[in-house]
Amino acid sequence: MIRLVKRPMPSKFWSWTTPLVAVIATMIAGGLLFAILGKNPVEAIRVIFWDPLFGPNADYFRSQLLVKAAPLILIACGLAVGFRAGIWNIGAEGQYIIGAIFGASLALAVYPAESWFLFPAMVVLGAIGGLLWGLIPALLKVVFGTSEILVSLMLVYVAQNLLAYMAFGPLKNPEGYGFPGSRNLQGYPSAFNDELMAGTGVHWGVLAALGAVVAIYVLMQRHIAGFRIRVAGEAPRAARYAGVVPARLIVFCLCLSGALAGMAGLFEVSGPSGQITDSFNVGYGYTAIIVAFLGRLHPVGILLAGLLMALTYIGGDMAQLMLGLPSAAIQVFQGMLLFFLLGFDLLTNYRIRIGGARA
Amino acid sequence: MIIGGIDIITLISMLMVASTPVLLAATGELVAEKSGVLNLGVEGMMITGAVAGFATAVSTGSPVLGFVGGALAGAAMAMLFAILTQVFLSNQTATGLALTLFGLGLSALIGKPFEGVRPPATGKVPFGPLSDIPVLGRILFSHDWVVYLSLLLVAVTWAFLKFTRAGLILRAVGENHDAAHALGYRVIAVRCAALAFGGALAGLGGAYLSLIRVPQWTEGMTAGAGWIALAIVVFASWRPERALIGAYLFGGITALQLQLQAAGYAIPVHLLSMAPYVLTIVVLVLLSVVHRRGVQAAPAALGRSFHAAS
Amino acid sequence: MNRRSFLTSTAATAVVAASGLPARAADPLKVGFIYVGPVGDMGWSYQHDQARLAAQQEYGDRIVTSYIENVPEGPDAERALTQLALQGNQLIFATSFGFMDATVNVAKKFPNVKFEHATGYKQAENLATYDARFYEGRAIQGTIAGRMTKTNKIGYIGSFPIPEVVQGINAVYIHAKKVNPDVEIKVVWAYTWFDPAKEADAAAALIAEGCDFVLQHTDSTAPQAKAQEAGNVFTFGQASDMIAFAPKPRVSSTIDHWDPYYIKRIGEALDGTWKPEATWGGIGTGMVGIGEISDAVPAEVKEEALALKDRIASGEYHPFTGPLKKQDGSEWLAEGATPEDGELAGMNFFVEGVSGELPK
Question: Domain of life here (chain B) (predicted)?
Answer without folding.
Answer: Bacteria
